[in-house]
Structure formats: C-alpha cells, structure tokens
Amino acid sequence: MEEFVLTDDIIEQIKDFDHEGLIEEQSLLIDKLILNEELKKRYKKNGLCKECKQPNTYYQGDYSIWCMSCNAKNFQQNFKNWTSGNHEVDKFIQKTQLKAKNLSEVLEWIEYDRFENIEYLTKGGFGTIYKAIWKDGRIKSWDFENNKWTRSKYYCREYEDFPVVLKCLHNSQDISSDFLRIIETHMFVSNYGDRITKCYGITKDPESRNFMIVMGYAKDVLNIIKQCWDADPLKRPKANELEDLFDKLYDELDYDFDEEYINEIYKQVEEAEKLMKTVYTSRLLDFKNLPEPINAIDNKDDDNSFGEYSESIEAIDFTKLDPRSS
Hints:
The chain is of the alpha+beta class.
C-alpha cells in the first residue's frame, strides 16, 4: 500500500504554521497544497513532527505527541537492550511498538524489579491478581532534545506513586498464543474508550516464572467487580445498575476527546449494551451444577482485597449462549 508523505516544498511552506490556530489564509493554503485527505486531516489534527516534519499520528497538547515512523525507529534501536526470555513474547511486544499510532497502543517489556509494594488481591482458576507501584510510569512521548522517552504517572488522575495491576496467568512459563490473544483483544477493546483499563506491558514473576500482564489500576472498578461476585444473587447489580455505575465512573474521568472519537466510543458502547441487555436480563441466571459461591467480600476486611473465588467453576463461553432459550 502506497504511503503518502509531504514533499519538502510543502513542508517549507507550512513548517511555521500553528495547526491549532490556522488563520483563514493558512487553512486555504493547506487545502491547496495537501491533496491527500488523510494526510491533510492528520496535519490539521496533530501538526508536524519535530524530527521528520511529517504529520504526527497523535497529538494531545503538552501531554503527548506521537509520530509513528519516528517512534518506531526509537523503539527498534532499543530492541537489543531487552528480552523477555521468550521469542514469541518479544516479537509480540516489538510488533505493537512498531505499529503504535499513539501511546495507548504501545506495550513494554517491564523488568519485575521496576515494581514495588506488591500486594495480593485475589486468586482464581486461571490466575492471580496483584496491585503494585510502577516506579517509572507509562511511556508518554519521545523527548527529541534529550533523546529519551518521557513518562507519565497519570491514569484518571496524577499519581506520585503510580498504581498498576499485575495479572499473573498460572502455568504460563511456556507462553501460549492464547495468552497473547488475550492481551491483543484487551488492547483493541480498550482503545475505543476509557471504560476499559489500559494494558501497559508484560513482566515475569522471577519465582514462579509465570508471565504477568501489567494493567491500569482503578479501585472503583474493583469495587464494582466485588458487587458482581457477591454470593447472594439478590445483591448483585442488574444490567441497568451496572450501566449506571460505569456511566458514573466514566463521567468522573478527566479526559477531553474530540467529537469524532466520542462518537466512536458511543457506537461501541451501544453495541455492547445491546448484547448486555439481551443476555443479562436478570441477576438470577440459571446455570446448573455450579458449586456454592464464596462471598469474597466477607473474606477480607481490606477494601482492596477480594479473597479467593472458586477454582472449580468451568469457563462459560457466553458467545454460545442462546438468549432466546428459557
């Protein structure tokens, strides 16, 4: 597929423009010079990269500016300096770094010693969840002057100590394609909006040698999960109550997205809500032969702890359920 770029002549004419404050004369010149609509849209939305002078692929003011081609080179130059110890994991992370159009599409290999204050949250049949402090914070933008990544400890709000969730999958020493698909699917869904916690990278427990997914930490989301896991079905939230809880949580997030991005979020949310209302019409779902649930809330006094939930429950493929059957 042919890649369209700005010519040196066009760059010379527009390099001093402020893409956020184009006057009418400048805007008309842009329309005349940049004939490719995708390239023109990228320029007007994201401005020019300081290094290659091509339109950035992402721009969020002083917080993050992203040029896919330049950042791919920066990542690639660092490939020789890290490894997960697993070829498939390395290739997977490298692929996200080479194709990332913004900071949310990037995964990192994060050495385990970059985490501190690691606390157990809960354990189930497939994995164990921990809370930890990530000393460095997530990648934000490339600092061209100092030739290094700038990092952020912002997730819903600014943190001095950046909290994350470490999701450890049992028996993942020999990584499987299923594990990588879980991460890839999560990243795809989370990029449509901030109702889904972000995935920052992968690390490895040095004792068990199990791989761990590093994700954003949101206490309010964990509290919602607690309610959904209540041993008493009558105390679990209904579909419309869940919708209200997530709407409230989403409204409290401090983000400023453009109209096009907001419309895409709503489109995805509406589709999800249709499915949710079809399948989860009652809190009294009639699944046969399930063991008696353990009420995780009663096991611990700590608000951040879940206790343990039953490992004997077999996974249910909700995509194969027929909501029309009684």
